[in-house]
Amino acid sequence: MIPVVMPTYSRIDVVFERGEGCFLYDTTGRRFLDFTSGIAVNALGHAHPYLVEKLTEQAHKLWHTSNLFRVAGQEKLAGRLKELTFADTMFFTNSGVEAWECGVKLVRKYHYETGHPEKTRFIVAGGNFHGRTMTAIAASGQDKMVKGFGPLLDSFDRVAYDDVEAVKAAVTPQTAAILVEPILGEGGIRPASLGYLKALRAIADEHGLLLFFDEIQCGVGRTGKLFAYEWAGVTPDVMCIAKGIGGGFPLGACLATEKAAQGMVAGTHGSTFGGNPLAMAVGNAVLDVVLQPGFLDNVIAKGALLEGKLDDLVKRHPSVLDSVRGKGLILGLKCVVPAGDLVTALRDNGMLVVSAADNVIRILPPLIVGEAEINEAVAILDRTCAALAA
C-alpha cells in the first residue's frame, strides 16, 4: 500500500521536533550537530531569536493579501537587494526552481522583445541542478531525474563545467543565454574558476546573450560574499536565489537588470503566494543579520578554519577521504569510500551532512557556526573516518 506521503524520497527514520542554533533534537531527545542546514537553507541556524521575533511580529498583523495589491515588505526587500547587487528589479517566489523558471521566461521574453525570437536556447553546464520542474530536469538531462518524464523541452545545450572553449563552441544563432551555477552544489561542490566566470561575461557580451547565474545554493553569504559572483568581479544579467534568503522560510527571487527584464510587464508572470508578507518579514530579517558589520568576514574566517581542519583530516585518513573543495562555508569532502556510507556513519555518531555528485559529502553548517561547533564536527569526522578505515 502506498504511504499517505508520496514516497518520492528515501526518507531517513528520524523525526526532529526542535532545533537551536547549529543543533537539532529528535523526538527521542537525541542531539545532532547540523552541518546540512536543510541543504544550505537554515543560514542562521535553527530558531534564530531575531527571525522568530520578526516572523511572529508579522504573523500577528497580516499573512496574505495577494499580489493584486502592493506589498510593503516586497518593496523594502527589493530595494535593499537592488542596492546590494547588480539588479534593478526582481520577482519574489516561494522556491528556488520557481525563481529559476522566472529567469528562463525572462530570457526568452527579452530576445522576443528585442527582435530575436529565434534565440531560445540555453548553454548550461554539465552537472547542473536547477530543480525538479519539467524545464529544470530538461536542463539537467540526468537519467535519474528525466527517466519516464519525456518528452522534454529541447532548449538546453550542455557543455563541460568550467570549460571556456566548450562554451564558445556551443554558441549558435539560436543561443539566448549562458546559464551556470558559480559553484556546483548538487553537482559536487565544484567552484568555477574566477577566470571562467569572467570569460562567460565576455562571451555573452560578444554575442548579445544574457548571462544567468543560479545562486540558489551558494548565495546569501555562504561563500563570505553576499553572492558568489562578487568574487569574480563580474555581474550577471539575471540571477535566481532562494534557500538562505529565507533562513528556513520558503522564499526565492529572480533578480534582473532593467535591460534584461524589459519584457516582463503586467500579465507576463505571477504567483499566488510569492512574496507574501510572512516571507518578506523573514527575508528582511535575514538581511538585517547577514549585513551586520563583520558577519561576512566571520564567514570567511570560519570557512578558512574549517577548510584547514578538513585538509588535515584528508591527510590523516587517505583511505577514506580524497580532497576538500569549495569556498567559505559551502565545502565538500570528496570520498574514497562510498559517500553514502560516510553520511550514514556520521549520522550514527550525531552529525548531519548530505551527499552530492562525484562521491562528495557536503559540509554546509549554518553561517553562525562557531569554533566550538567546528571542533566538534572535526572530532566526529575524525573518529568516524578512523572507524571506517579500520
Strand order of the largest sheet: 4-12-11-10-7-5-6
Using only C-alpha atoms, the radius of gyration works out to 21 Å
Number of beta strands: 17
CATH topology of the largest domain: Aspartate Aminotransferase, domain 2
Mean pLDDT across every amino acid position: 97
Q: What is the makeup of the main sheet?
A: 7 strands, mixed
The structural class is alpha/beta
Number of domains: 2
How would the global form be characterised? globular
CATH level-four homologous superfamily name of the largest domain = Type I PLP-dependent aspartate aminotransferase-like (Major domain)
Number of helices: 12
SSE blueprint and pairings:
Layout: E1 16-20, E2 23-26, E3 31-34, H1 37-40, H2 49-59, H3 72-84, E4 89-93, H4 96-113, E5 121-125, H5 134-140, H6 143-146, E6 156-159, H7 164-170, E7 175-180, E8 183-184, E9 190-191, H8 194-207, E10 210-214, E11 238-241, E12 252-256, H9 277-290, H10 295-316, E13 321-327, E14 330-335, H11 339-348, E15 351-352, E16 354-356, E17 360-363, H12 371-389
Parallel strand pairs: 3-15, 5-6, 5-7, 7-10, 10-11
Antiparallel strand pairs: 1-2, 2-3, 4-12, 8-9, 11-12, 13-14, 14-17, 16-17
Helix pairs in contact: 2-9, 3-9, 10-12
InterPro entries: AcOrn/SuccOrn_fam, Aminotrans_3, Aminotrans_3_PPA_site, Class-III_PLP-dep_AT, PyrdxlP-dep_Trfase, PyrdxlP-dep_Trfase_major, PyrdxlP-dep_Trfase_small
Binding site for N(2)-acetyl-L-ornithine: 132, 271
Keywords: Amino-acid biosynthesis, Aminotransferase, Arginine biosynthesis, Cytoplasm, Pyridoxal phosphate, Transferase
